[in-house]
Every structure is written in C-alpha cells, then in structure tokens.
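Illustration 12: Ribosomal RNA large subunit methyltransferase H.
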Amino acid sequence: MTIKLLAIGKTDSKSLLRLIHEYEGRLKHYVKFELEIIPDIKNTKKLSTIQQKEKEGEAILKRLNPTDTPILLDENGKQFSSVDFSNFLQKKMNAGSKRLVLIIGGPYGFSDAMYDMAKGKISLSKMTFSHQMVRLFVVEQLYRAFTILRNEPYHHR
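Figure caption equivalent — predicted structure in token form:
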C-alpha cells in the first residue's frame, strides 16, 4: 500500500519543513509514502468561502485515482488513539487498499463534493491546529503507527 498526504498550500516554516522531512525519511522504511502540496488557490479575495472550497476540492479531485481510498482530515472526523490509528492502517492494508490518501484541506475545510467522495474522516484533536502543523502531526503519527505495528520502542505503551 502507498500512503499519500495531500495538502493545500505550502509550509513557510523551515523548522516544520525540516521535521516533516525527517519523519518522511523514517516512514520510507515501512511504507511507500508520498507528500503532495497543491498550490494555494489564487485571487481568493474575489471568491466566497464556498467558491474557494469548491476550487480547492476540484484541485484535490484531479489528483485522485478511482482506486484511491480518500480520507479527509476534518475537525468532525473520528478521533483515534495512536494504537487505534495503527489498527486502522493495518485494516486498510489488510483490505488491499492500493493507495490511502489523507487529505488536508484549505483554511475553510472541504466542499460538499469532497465530503461526498470521501471514504472517511479523521480528526487529530478537538483543538484547531494550523494546516502547516497538521502535516507534521500526520507524518509523525503515521511513523508512530508503523512502529506500533512492528512492536518497536518508539511508542511506549
């Protein structure tokens, strides 16, 4: 299985980028991992919130394959412990998912079309985090999940 993290907008912080790349490197020992950043939508001042979410949704949908399992990172999604998240990933691998795509939307969330096509929603917390920090948290939790599945000491139970 391949895991792809798809996100809207670049990360400006060099410190966050360094940490994201560190966990990307660690993840490659366990699973094929891809990170794709979709450029911010231009001229958003002229768009309503709904129009911006629709344009972002269109950009995301263009990058998905029909066989993908798209999961939205959404504040109203299911919350997991790290162990439960590792079990979720194991189930996806056991089910034969070719590519699990975790999607971080733009600042206003997702369009209705995105919610309609998604195969699930995950929330990292009831708290709100910047989209840039969410990328780091997701990559770290993916790494942690694989160390849990391999019974390695990174995650202390």
